[in-house]
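FORM 7B: Structural annotation worksheet

SECTION A. Query
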Amino acid sequence: MTVNEYNKAVNLYSDRLFRFVLKSIRDTFAAEDIVQDSYEKLWKNVENVDGAKVKSYLFTTAYHTMIDRIRKEKRSAYLEELNLPEESHENNYSDLGEILKEAVNRLPEIQRMVLLLRDYEGYSYNEIGEMANLNESQVKVYIYRARVFLKNYIGKMEMVV
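SECTION B. Predicted structure
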């Protein structure tokens, strides 16, 4: 991989990579750090990475860096055990977007990743498989399971509205 190919990869994939990480961890500063770390790892390994596979390398690296960071944070303080007062909405207003976001956050890591890559970023099953080191059948199964979970979590529309 040449320096020009590296710069081209920065221009082509940095925004998508940032959106992918941000949707998974919902922390702008942490997402920026993970994207920066991913490009730093690419730069250190620039001689061994094929220019045609740089997108897959970046997303895989970002995903693994994100998982490492999440695991480290869980060890230091498990957020779900905190008893924080929940925000209440006046007039019992419910927003389907908020409910869907909550449901996506409850998905297992791998299901959330493949669902976000497919439905939010628009990648093909094959591309997702390359990024996550899964075969196409596994990707389809994880997406199916995630969608079934979301359907069951959200329930009937009458209950939401």
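SECTION C. Observations
Helices lie at 3-25, 28-44, 54-76, 96-105, 109-120, 125-132, 136-154, 157-160. The CA atoms of residues 22 and 72 lie 17 Å apart.

SECTION D. Sign-off
Analyst initials: ____
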